[in-house]
Amino acid sequence: MRDDAVHERKVGPLTFRLDLSQPLYEQILEQMRAAIARGELPLGEKIPSVREMAQALRVNPNTVSHAYQELERDGLTETRRGQGTFVTAEPARVDQFRTAIAEQAVNEFVDRMQALGFGWNDIDRLLDERKAKGGA
Amino acid sequence: MRDDAVHERKVGPLTFRLDLSQPLYEQILEQMRAAIARGELPLGEKIPSVREMAQALRVNPNTVSHAYQELERDGLTETRRGQGTFVTAEPARVDQFRTAIAEQAVNEFVDRMQALGFGWNDIDRLLDERKAKGGA
DNA sequence: CGTGTGTATTATGTGATATAATACACATGT
DNA sequence: ACATGTGTATTATATCACATAATACACACG
Q1: CB–CB contact B126 A103 (8 Å)
Q2: Domain count of the fold of chain B
Q3: B82 with B123, same domain?
Q4: pLDDT digit string (tens) for A59-91?
Q5: Measured between beta carbons, which residues in chain A are less than 8 angstroms from residue B109?
Q6: What's the CATH number where A72 sits?
Q7: Distance CA B88 to C1' D7 in A
Q8: How many of the other CB atoms lie within 10 Å of CB of B29?
């Protein structure tokens, strides 16, 4: 288990977990994507400003901006100069995005397991074990 | 889909896929781990020498050495000066290692899916879809 | 006009990664 | 003894991604 000084910080309705095992902007990006995918940030919602987010996360504004620009490239948000960044992806689009991410996660997971020599039976078994232990 | 010039090179019985999306030594390390986990390199087997591997993969010997040292830290191999690097982990130990990696993969996968708001039903469904499409 | 937006620019610093060129320590076979 | 093949260590260099800092700019709104 890697701990590496995990920082948990809240900004508005969101909670971010940051550590040093990955680029900061990627962690912010991924957690923003997940928040939108979950529907936690609905259509039209204004997400925290770059400077506000930067201050809350104790991070440089440039770093937050980097993440936000990737969000826009994803087609999830839209930027309006002088106003802020808003979620503009419609629910159907968001769900499509969410599914795409999920399928990629599935593929990476299955490929990884098969590289270790596990078949479907083993995968199902290990998942059941996790199901028995873990939450949700 | 990321292509990024994937190089596939063979060395002895093994085949390596290298690209530039990750550190080279990590890719070598992970694929060596998988080969051992699969039982493709049995107990006592001498793995290719640092220089041989470096030449085959078109990579600096230091890079290969880095990967090999991590393998030894994993307790999978043992180094004998003047002789080479050998697989010294017994089958039971290898299997324990394989399971540990697999469980970590499962945990990361499940956590990621749950972060996207998917429950067990969704996970099972997406896995079934992949099962229908993909190989093995 | 003042304030709050996102963005751009320039500079600096750090760390991981990879390469190159050598040299060393050790085992083995001849 | 020697040559050869092992892993390893050292030193140097180079590159790149990442993050920060300090400013400045363009725009919207009240």
Answers
A1: yes
A2: 2
A3: no
A4: 999 999 999 999 999 999 999 999 999 999 999
A5: 105-106, 108-109
A6: 1.10.10.10
A7: 16
A8: 19
| Strand C closer than 7 A to residue A69 Cβ | yes
Tokens found for residue B21: 């999306």
Q: Determine the protein residue whose CA lies at the shortest distance from the C1' of D28.
A: A82
Same domain for A31 and A97, yes or no, is no
| Domain ranges, residue A116 | 91-133
What pTM was computed for the model?
0.93
Query: Does A81 lie in the same domain as A19?
Result: yes
CB contact under 8 Å between B112 and A105, yes or no, is yes
A103: nearest CA partner in chain B: B126
Q: pLDDT tens digits, residue range B25-42? A: 999 999 999 999 999 999
With helix as H, strand as E and coil as C, how does chain A read?
Answer: CCCCCCEEEEECCEEEEECCCCCHHHHHHHHHHHHHHCCCCCCCCEECCHHHHHHHHCCCHHHHHHHHHHHHHCCCEEEECCCEEEECCCHHHHHHHHHHHHHHHHHHHHHHHHHCCCCHHHHHHHHHHHHHHCCC
CB of A121 within 7 Å of some strand D atom: no
User: Do residue A71 and residue A103 come from a single domain?
Assistant: no
